[in-house]
Design brief:
heterodimer, A: 5-stranded antiparallel sheet, 5-stranded antiparallel sheet, B: 5-stranded antiparallel sheet, globular, proteasome (chain B), Proteasome_asu_N (chain B), nucleus (chain B), Proteasome_sua/b (chain B), Proteasome_alpha-type (chain B)
Chain lengths: ~270, ~240
Amino acid sequence: MKLDTTGLESALPLFGANCQMVDGFTAAPAFELPTTLDFDGFQKEAIQMVKPAKGTTTLAFIFKEGVMVAADSRASMGGYISSQSVKKIIEINPYMLGTMAGGAADCQFWHRNLGIKVCRLHELANKRRISVTGASKLLANILYSYRGMGLSVGTMIAGWDETGPGLYYVDSEGGRLKGPRFSVGSGSPYAYGVLDSGYRYDMSIEEAAELARRAIYHATFRDGASGGVASVYHVGPNGWKKLSGDDVGELHYKYYPVTPSTVEQEMVEVSAA
Amino acid sequence: MARYDRAITVFSPDGHLFQVEYALEAVRKGNAAVGVRGTDTVVLGVEKKSAAKLQDSRSVRKIVNLDNHIALACAGLKADARVLINRARIECQSHRLTVEDPVTVEYITRYIAGLQQKYTQSGGVRPFGLSTLIIGFDPYTGVPSLYQTDPSGTFSAWKANATGRNSNSIREFLEKNYKETSGQETVVESGGKNIEVAVMTKDQGLRQLEESEIDGIVAEIEAEKAAAEAAKKGPARDA
């Protein structure tokens, strides 16, 4: 398998059978550059303008019984909540999950592409499942070749393969990290606080699910761009299984139930004077 | 430009690809190569033509490593072999880079066979004139395998196989004498005296046997043979 350099190749070859040598043009096609003093800065600004902020909270961690993956379900466009029921955990194949942060379309498309074109074809050609390492590496290479073109993807690939549980963080800058715990999105600092302080390697599945759920809840509590439903998935040796999907509003009253307090003062009707 | 886009390998009226068949002929004229797969070892042996006195025999290694856990021996045009081996070695590393995993024997065999097939269906090129024997261990399950490819681009897995000169008689011998626990003795026996042998185990990778070791095994085999002959003649005389 070669490196995906399709994004790095120029549009037309300079010489050869496919070259269009028309009207004496012998140079590669070029476009007009805007007249600025600082073209690189201008490019950066343009990309920042196009790149949507990753308003979301997703997290995943490896523990004794496998990988726990959780996410919220809010999609926001600036201050407008466009949806409270977005599926941010994408089922790549029965034993691998991907999380969505950043551009929804980008994440969905590339995860689906990964599941079908990369993972399934690999299975068919090699008669064995692709490893989490391999799938995440191929996704990272593809995203790297589109670097600078405005893709916005901050995803975690979680799965169980021959070597056990695997978790990788992959983003559209081309970065790829292997680690035991990750959280991605605008709500991630809040989620990390709860996740890191409550994490133990040898938790049971219920304990780990509760930790993941609470971490997502706390992130949605403080981060305006996260909310909706906290979904929790578990990836074990036989594949993934969705454990729960709780509305974070209901979770709030479950964690902090309203206790009736003694009345100090009561409002009394004042007779009209 | 010359019309190099014209295919050289074309079908004959009765459905043969003559260039491929001629390539197989070239393989049949090449030095014999034998491979045997055991339960936890795989062995390759290649017939050595008697080295010229002034030739540095170490520079004509016929059994090569494709990766730490895969080795290849071939029969046929050695210059073609060099090209194929280089491409295979690059593919092994490229696979390690893109999927962070070593190749399986089947994968690299499929790659080499695919390459050989490509050259039977392209313009201006001739097929590779060699058949390869590829041995190795699966990186995760540790199961040993032996595969063979040929100039037409087909490949299959074998318990034991031979290619090159006298391959038919060697294969007959292998069919008679192969047992699941076979190893180096079978290869050496089928090869004869002037051979290069390499043994691959899961933990130690490929190891070329020294001439002294080969001589030792040959001596053992001849002793066994002599004992078997004597045993046959003995009872007959008594009766």
